[in-house]
Amino acid sequence: MKFPTVENAALVMIDMQQKLLPAMNDPQTVLERNILLLNAADVLKLDILVTEQYPKGLGNTVPELATWLGEKTPVIAKTSFSVFGSAEFCAELAKRKREVLIFSGIESHVCLLQSVLDAVERGYEVIVASDAVMSRKFSDCHAALEMMRSKGVSVLSTESILFMLLRDAAHPAFKTISKLVK
Fold it and tell me: Is 15 a catalytic residue?
């Protein structure tokens, strides 16, 4: 496994939208973990790409997350379930030249699963933040995470991922990140 670093990794947050999030099995937890990921990504200056599945019908990214998105964060509308079905997403990702993709978002068994499998097929090292993803039914989420694991995807907690990005307590952002996860 290639360890994620600020230089080689990007966070891909999938479809955390106004009409989708409330329908999830545990919307509050998945929202809180995505806020943590975005907050930490901001501290670490980690690249972020955000997608919205058919925003005309499903709304935009929830305001609690949208407030964390900077000017350099592309929010990409798509209709394909996989982010890789979007030419705009592929172009934005290519600009960043990243080898490791950290995924979060919804729904685990549809857009997230297809995106993760496409990323693996394209040769990316893939990490999924297990506590920052969800489906309407927990069983769908669980089955999708098992499928991802079977394809070599690292399925880890948000906290594990953040400390992997730090790698050392001497990292300048260690104290800030430590406070965020408490």
Answer: yes
